[in-house]
Amino acid sequence: MIKVILCDDHALIRRGIRDTLSDASDIEVVGEAADYGELRALMRHTTCDVLVLDINLPGRSGLDVLHALKDEGSPVRVLIVSMYPEDQYAIRALRAGAYGYVNKGGDPQQIVQAVRTVAQGRKNVTPEIAHMLIESLTTPAAEQAHEKLSDRELQTLVMIASGKRLSDIAEELMLSPKTVSVYRARVLEKLGLSNNSELTVYAIRNGLVGQ
């Protein structure tokens, strides 16, 4: 039996994933968490084979959690299930230690198969991600400017370009507005941009948000 813990801040999404996984006779959901704090408390007394993790968590992001687990040498295999398209975060997640990346908007059965693949210690890579990995290996000199952003800076970029105000971002990420402003300033500087309008245009042109 594959034991799974779910970590997503949206209860309805957790329920949907739990119901999907529970239909599989070889998978058991043994715990749920809404953020990093709840996850850490849960993992102290609940063991699992696979952690199904969202990227956009309040406070510490899913990428932060990946880095923390990697630093601790945790044996838990992580499957990222995110609303963001593969080209935004998949490569970063895999580099941070994830075993796979699945988009929430895809076929629910993809999550079931991905959990099984990850539980076996194998990477779950979609054709789109495989293509991006090949591109990153064969054209390393073509690195785009936003790929040099930190995980939190990229997250801030995507949220601003999606039309969210700094105050909304601060609340969602459980950060101070001042901290979010610092991230915004770093993004503008690293990308050589001047304002949110230019930032949004950059994000659209590079496929980081939809038009």
From TrEMBL:
CDD domains: LuxR_C_like (cd06170), REC_NarL-like (cd17535)
Superkingdom of the organism of origin: Bacteria
Gene Ontology biological-process entries: phosphorelay signal transduction system; regulation of DNA-templated transcription
The keyword Transcription regulation belongs to this UniProt entry's keyword annotation: yes
Domain Response regulatory: 3-119
Keyword annotations: DNA-binding, Phosphoprotein, Transcription, Transcription regulation, Two-component regulatory system
GO MF annotation list: DNA binding
Keyword DNA-binding appears in the UniProt entry: yes
Domain HTH luxR-type: 142-207
Residue positions where 4-aspartylphosphate is found in the record: D54
PANTHER family (UniProt xref): RESPONSE REGULATOR UVRY, TWO-COMPONENT RESPONSE REGULATOR
Name assigned to this protein: Response regulator transcription factor
Protein species of origin: Azohydromonas caseinilytica
